[in-house]
Write a structure and sequence with these properties.
About 40% of the residues lie in helices and about 25% in strands. With about 150 residues, the protein is an alpha/beta fold. Strands 1, 2, 3, 4, 5 and 6 form a six-stranded mixed beta sheet that branches.
Length: about 150
């Protein structure tokens, strides 16, 4: 992990063919802007033209972070998609209002609400299924053993 990413984390929560939900946590500022943009651009470049950012855990965003969001908004629109911001905290809301950029973004109270603005064919299932990988492997092994017994 690079030093820029220590105070910022971008985590893919769920992805569909044309839509991805990313959780952004930490601080989006001068130190982390390049890493954030690289991560977000790679997701969009992979075909996810609808991008939902869950900002629940974003502790800080300054004008440089706002510039990143504006660039990402432009990129998604250029690809005939949308950037959707979900679960904005009070600080983020104040930043958008104070810079008069609230109207530029599509903002929603939750990720679920944001996903309703994504076309049905592009929308991933929400909430994502929580599957314990160890349980899935145990089920596969159990299924495989029972099939072997049936063949005997």
């Amino acid at each position: 992990m690079s030093s820029e990413m220590r105070s910022l984390a971008v985590t893919a929560i769920v992805q569909a063919e044309e839509c991805a939900v990313l959780r952004v946590s930490g601080e989006l500022d001068l130190r982390t802007e390049q890493a954030f943009l690289a991560e977000a651009r790679s997701v969009v470049s992979a075909g996810h033209r609808f991008l939902v950012l869950d900002l629940t855990a974003l502790r800080f965003c300054d004008s440089r972070g706002l510039s990143c969001l504006l660039a990402l908004e432009w990129l998604c629109r250029r690809l005939e998609g949308r950037l959707l911001l979900a679960s904005l905290g009070v600080r983020m809301l104040r930043l958008l209002i104070g810079t008069q950029s609230l109207g530029v973004f599509s903002c929603y109270p939750t990720v679920g609400h944001a996903l309703t603005a994504v076309p049905d064919a592009s929308r991933p299932a929400w909430p994502p299924s929580v599957e314990d990988p160890s349980e899935a492997k145990a089920e596969e092994k159990a299924g495989g053993k029972s099939e072997e017994k049936d063949d005997s």
